[in-house]
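haha ok so turns out i had the wrong file open the whole time. this is the CORRECT one, sorry everyone. sequence first:
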Amino acid sequence: MNNNITIAVDGFSSTGKSTIAKLIAKKYSFIYVDTGAMYRAVTLFAKQNNFVGKDFLEETKIISSLKDISLSFKFNEKLGFAEIYLNNVNVEKEIRTLEISQLVSKVAAISEVRKKLVAEQQEIGKRGGVIMDGRDIGTVVFPNADLKLFMTASAEKRAKRRYNELIDRGDEISYEDILFNVKERDRIDSTRDDSPLIKADDAIEFDNSDMGIEEQFKEICTLIDNKLKEIK
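then structure:
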């Protein structure tokens, strides 16, 4: 059976897009690309160089520094998925902090940043056999994807998931701060001028406010199996 299809997984933050995509990639031997990690890595670079902060954004400096940013994914056999490297340094842990979460939407709204990363994402997906998650995969990166999914859930449920994740990791953070960040990211992602977060007309929506990972995984696998049968 030909597995060289392209799957786009879009949706709001903390809806489990990456978790589902990793499971799908493992089951079907797809290449998994976490585009959110790419935007987070650029944001980390900008923060390290004092180009972005809570109350400021040096957009011109970020744009002029894009040539100095090299991103790559390297598979970690112990973890079972690829980790992101910024200029040959593993930054998988550094990009997952609340501080980066609070800054990433501002950096991701810069058109030049999106242009650079979209080009890299499209290059990765040329051969097919790819599942990619983000905000604009089905609308901009792969408008002709074989299967498009759109993940959503209530802000409160998403904030609780993110809160539990950070607490389990040892971070000291309040639920209220997480909820504010989730709602603010939704606002910025959905209203930016360049490639706003919207559901593609042909995307299948999953509201997983009250759905477990296993239930979602089973339903999505059925959709993929049906799609593979169509194009075999």
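The longest strand covers residues 6-11.
again sry for the mixup
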